[in-house]
Amino acid sequence: MVNQVVLVGRLVYDPELRELEDGKKVTTITLALQRSFKNAETGTYDTDFIRCTLWSGIAENTVQYCKKGATIGVVARLSQRFFEYGEDESFSYPEIVAERVSFIQKAHKTES
Question: Is pTM, for the whole model, over 0.85?
Answer without folding.
Answer: no
